[in-house]
Amino acid sequence: MGRYILRRLLQMIPTLLAVAALIFLIFSVLPGSFAGTMTGGGRRALSPELVAQINAQFGLDKPLPVRFWDYLVRLAQFDLGTSFRTREPVVDLIAARIWPSLQLALSAMALAVTVGIPLGFLAAMRPGSLLDSITMIGAVSGLSMPQFWLGLLLMYVFALQLGWLPSFGYGDGRLRNLILPAIALGFAPLALLARTTRAGVLEVMGSDHIRTAMAKGTSPAQMIRWHVLRNVMVLIVTTLGLQIGSLLGQALVIEKLFSWPGLGSLMVDSVAIRDIPVVQGTILVIVLWFLVINVLVDVIYAVIDPRISLR
Amino acid sequence: MSGPLLDIRGLTIGIPNRSGPPVQIVRDLSFDILPGEIFGLVGESGSGKSASALALMGLNRRPLTTLRGQALYGGQDLLAMSRRSMRKLRGDRISMIFQEPMSALNPLARIGRQIAEMFVLHRGLSWSEAGPKAVEALAAVQVPDPEGRARAYPHQLSGGLRQRVMIAMAMACGPDLLIADEPTTALDVTVQAEVLRLIRGLCERQGTAVLLISHDLGVIAQMCQRVGVMANGRLLELRDAKALFTDPRHPYTQGLLAALPRLGSRATEGRHRLADLDMAIDRDAPDFAATYLCPRGEAA
After folding, report:
1. Of A17, A307, B65, B266, which residue is the least packed, with the fewest Cβ within 10 Å?
2. pTM of the predicted protein model
3. Which of B92, B98, B108 minimises the CB distance to A217?
4. Of A207, A211, A217, Cβ closest to residue B91
5. At a CB cut-off of 8 Å and minimum separation 6, what does B257 contact?
6. Residue contact A234–B92, C-beta within 8 A
7. Shortest CA distance to A229 belongs to which of A308, A106, A111, A125?
8. CB contact under 8 A, A209 and B103
9. Does A191 fall in a domain?
10. In the predicted structure, residue B300 carries a pLDDT above the cut 50
11. Does A82 reside within a domain?
């Protein structure tokens, strides 16, 4: 198990390198530069000499392969570089934003798990019932509704009309501020989990070993506890992992909408001003999160399903 | 001998149909099973054998529904029982094993635990008390290294071993009746014989009656005291096993037995082929509709 995890962690390195190279390439073909987004007072563009001077200061005048090599050398020392704008180390900037980001992503996921999985279970217990129909209609709308629209709707109803909750901001990490963005972010994974759970439960309930369990004389509650729960978990753990993994990246729209000081909004702001080191840093962290969650899912998989062995 | 263990009267199973009468899968099936007897139910696939067996356990899945009939067990009608009292009987007094040992066990639970369930459910034991009993049950079905196998998962066992596990589970509480639905069909021939011997041995020792369902006339002939022949959802012939095999009355049974291959004979040498059976027998003819249901204890 330990060897397996170590190998999987080492396998992340090429993936991260590829991601880093891709970001480098994209920014090299993208029009605009950090100096180009600056204005000297008023609305005048900077003079060409000044632009060249700024570019030279950040090493942007060097050829792309050289810059990439320099970047990799620093990356190997866990140095993500320095922000063009604030001149602070990117690591510090990310460290300041990562907690709000995780807070938002994990609360969204907690909501999706605690509501979505039971809902899918109940729907599967009574297929075709009113609860089932409502859940599945809700799930389809949840999956097809754009996040930002749901966010705006929540803001309008609960902040503007009812005035129960603040409409934006981190509020020094108060729970009141977390609720609306967490719901907006968690609704789609909730819907997906409800659907996957329902399908999983129906699949397990239709299998032969459930007939055996009934022939043994188990009550419905015993059957679910002994022969359904774990088997359903095997079927939904992949979906669950993919959702948790991609949530950090998905959060950027919601973070911008609710002015949430997370990685997503940091990344969007930095893209706008071509603050390349910050963009690279945030994307790497988001990708790393995804990869780590993936390894975790595979390990959990092997723990709950004895047919899978990690090698 | 006292009365029958299970008396099935007029069992009719079908699929309810909103516009019209239900489609009947099993029609007016009646037979009884004596205590400790091995009763065979033979017939082609689709003849309604399994549906009848599952109906007795109350385990048919929708849309299959028991439409009419009684199954009297100790004065109670299994078909009219509350779910709760049926659950008490299932596994304890009447247990069942299935055709597919590969999928009939929960793939994520250890063998020992799945057997131990029987003692927790029906004997009120705790899991820690039930564990050693499960190992004993595995030893009783001649599983080598029962302690080790109790800790194994189903995928680590062969098909034959898994069927033994199913038998251990079904026999754990010493039931009055074991319903064995094609218990050896999925196994290869050498394992088949062992499993059948095991079922017969255990049931004789515990005084358990068996309802053995098979399409394999060889298995039926080897195991059963009395045999019912089913086709098209009806019981065509019900006889002592010896009488049935030496002197079949119903044209369907006659055709079925005539189609049995003999060692050393060629398919063309005077014997019928099973493929011809369908054509040779007119299922709409009046003599097909006739039934030969002999009382118990007829002369061979």
Report:
1. B266
2. 0.82
3. B92
4. A217
5. B217, B245, B248
6. no
7. A125
8. yes
9. yes
10. no
11. no
Is A210 part of any domain? yes
Q: At CB < 8 Å, which residues of chain B contact A?
A: 57, 59, 87-92, 95-96, 98, 100, 103-109, 117-118, 121-122, 153, 155, 166, 169
Chain A positions touching B85 (Cβ under 8 A) are none
CA dihedral A105, A111, A114, A119 (to 10 degrees): -130
Residue A311 has pLDDT above 80, yes or no: no
The chain B residue lying nearest A305, using CA atoms, is B108
ipTM above 0.90, yes or no: no
Q: How far apart are CA A255 and CA A250, in angstroms?
A: 9
Query: How many domains is chain A built from?
Result: 1
Q: Which CATH number belongs to the domain containing residue A204 in this structure? A: 1.10.3720.10
Q: For chain A, state the CA radius of gyration.
A: 24
3-state secondary structure (DSSP) of residue B70: strand
CA distance B53 to B74: 18
A298-308 confidence digits (pLDDT tens): 888 888 888 88
pLDDT, average across residues B34-42 = 93
Mutation target among A203, A210, A212 for the B interface, most CBs of B within 10 A? A212
Instruction: Say how many residues make up chain A.
Output: 311
Please report whether residue A70 resides in a domain.
no
Q: Identify the residue with better confidence: B216 or A169.
A: B216
Q: Give the best residue of A207, A209, A219, A231 to mutate against chain B (max B CB count within 10 A).
A: A209
Pair of tokens at residue A250: 């998905």
> In terms of residue numbers, what domain contains A132?
98-304
CB B95 within 8 A of CB B170: yes
